[in-house]
Amino acid sequence: MFRRGWFLPIAAALGFSFLYAPIVSLVIFSFNESRLVTVWSGFSTKWYGELFRDPQMLGAAWLSLQIAALSASIALVLGTLAAVALVRFRRFRGRTLFSGMVSAPLVMPDVITGLALLLLFVAMESFIGWPRGRGMLTIVIAHSTFCMAYVCVVVQSRLSDFDRSLEEAAMDLGASPVRTFFDITLPIIAPALVSGWLLGFTLSLDDLVIASFVSGPGSSTLPMVIFSKVRLGVSPDVNALATIIIGIVATGVLIATIIQLRSKPKKARA
Amino acid sequence: MAKKPQQLAIDTRPWRDTANHRPFVRIKNVTKKFGDVLAVHDVSLDIYRSELFCLLGGSGSGKSTLLRMLAGFEQPTSGTIEIDGQDMTDVAPYNRPVNMMFQSYALFPHMSVEQNIAYGLKRDHLPKGEIADRVAELLSLVKLQDYGRRRPHQLSGGQRQRVALARALAKRPKLLLLDEPLGALDKKLREETQFELVKIQESLGVTFIVVTHDQEEAMTLATRIGVMNQGEIAMIGEPTDIYEFPNSRFVANFIGSANMVEGTVTEDEPGHVRIRSAELGCDIYVGHGVDCAPDQLLWWAIRPEKMALSREKPFTAHDANVTAGIVEEIAYLGDISVYQVALESGKRIRVSQTNSVRGNPDAITWDEKVYITWSDNAGSVLTV
């Protein structure tokens, strides 16, 4: 009924402009010459230059990248282990409960996750003296926990359509279970691992709320710095920074998607 | 090494002379339960060296479970499995002198054909040169010399099947297990591949155990067939035994097609038996003795091709082995025609006749009254 009409294209256009108009305007205004954010006075890249001369921004960006890389890696290992356990040990009691619990952090409000982690860190410090204070370490731990949930979901879906007889074939040919995991299982689920890692990386880079709860003095991540700057009034260099972040995140998500898509049809045919 | 004709009778049928031959694979009272489900129930089976043994059965008959226990992927709940005199019951799959060809082929998608075939050899830490030689040898065995560098997804179904076979043979296993090896191929290719498989098996002398649900495949490939039903072995025998001398109603119905009628014993002599069958509307005279009692209820099964149709009532001795009916259906299959004849009792009998005359204008046709006859030993008397 709608196939030939104008309805679908218009609906799509409206939907997408609703989603992306703010981002596009932000990107455009990052090239604004004027100091006033809302007044266009000509094209310029000077705010990008300004940005790279701001040590606070650069420091925060570096910290954020380190945290993102570290927590994505930790989450990758833990999430993969959880996924293997959940998919492989099919018949253990309470499996459904466990797999629900693994994905619960996906829907948990960040405020609650952040608060809970903060309380935990404070309690741990007073009882066992670790982690001492709050800073990069606590942010990494916090980010690892919620990124792990994402990794686990991605790897789980890959593992569940994994043909078990591939592993049996390897064992049949004389490979021990450990050998089989590294020779067969790992290369085949590698695309899911890469996209899980990238997902974790971008999520960690984005996070403001949880990081605000568990960070300490001198360890402000990039989103935290931006947020505090914006509260004092939007300056054009924030637009420039936001544009760069959008670029990084979009690239990450894009690569993750491409890797996932590419690996699927191949597997179906083999 | 080709079979020499004079060795045929002795060497290739060791199961006929069990006193002088030690079984190569001994499955003793093996039972496998999955939770409360009995997948394999008290199966005992001896398989001899260089046999091509087929496990034949429908889905859920336990044939695949039995194969997986031989490979070591499943542990028997009870019973033992011996291969070449060694107890393998608790040996891990990667330590068994057994290789398996999987139904899905299970080729490693991220490795080339060569790497797939070499995988098992690398696990044995053979020197590189030897691995390369062996891979080349296997590729030529399965006629895939030019495909070594391809990935599995670049091959056709038949080529993948041959790669899977080459990979399974690479380690020169004493015993090769094949799970529906031809199941994924189309009919034409399957027929060609069957003979190739037999040829490879005979030239290498490896013992093959093949699981299949396709009775034609089992008949073509096997030296012996084990028919499985509901986790148990229903019958073990050479293809001709299974087809011509089924031991039960299940086997008679499962293999090929059979007409089955009920009857009671009226004469029970050492040299012959007479069975009265109301369903058939006549007496059945069986030309050999049967282990039964007078008045015992039993079944008589006969293959469609073992009977003859005629318009005139033929003469038969003993006033038996002939009945009459009306032709209801004819299935023309080219080489043969299958006639479905309705008897007076309402029982329907299928009779097949060879179409030896080209376009026979005088062929028996629909709604004709016909007589069906058979010889004294054409059918099987079944008590179970």
Automatic annotation (TrEMBL), chain A:
Residues 61-259 form the ABC transmembrane type-1 domain. This is Spermidine/putrescine ABC transporter permease. It comes from Devosia soli. The keyword Transport applies. GO terms for cellular component: plasma membrane. CDD domains: TM_PBP2. PANTHER family: PUTRESCINE TRANSPORT SYSTEM PERMEASE PROTEIN POTI. Keywords: Cell membrane, Membrane, Transmembrane, Transmembrane helix, Transport. One of its GO terms (biological process) is transmembrane transport. InterPro entries: Bact_Polyamine_Transport, MetI-like, MetI-like_sf. It is a multi-pass membrane protein. The chain crosses the membrane at residues 7-31, 60-86, 98-124, 136-159, 180-199, 238-259. It is found in: Cell membrane.
TrEMBL record, chain B:
It is an enzyme of class 7 (translocase). Residues 25-255 form the ABC transporter domain. SMART domains: AAA. Pfam families: ABC_tran, TOBE_2. The keyword Transferase does not apply. It catalyses: ATP + H2O + polyamine-[polyamine-binding protein]Side 1 = ADP + phosphate + polyamineSide 2 + [polyamine-binding protein]Side 1. Keywords: ATP-binding, Cell inner membrane, Cell membrane, Membrane, Nucleotide-binding, Translocase, Transport. GO terms for cellular component: ATP-binding cassette (ABC) transporter complex. Transmembrane segments: none annotated. Its EC number is 7.6.2.11. One of its GO terms (biological process) is putrescine transport. GO terms for molecular function: ABC-type polyamine transporter activity; ATP binding; ATP hydrolysis activity. The complex is composed of two ATP-binding proteins (PotA), two transmembrane proteins (PotB and PotC) and a solute-binding protein (PotD). Belongs to the ABC transporter superfamily. Spermidine/putrescine importer (TC 3.A.1.11.1) family. Part of the ABC transporter complex PotABCD involved in spermidine/putrescine import. Responsible for energy coupling to the transport system. This is Spermidine/putrescine import ATP-binding protein PotA. It comes from Devosia soli.
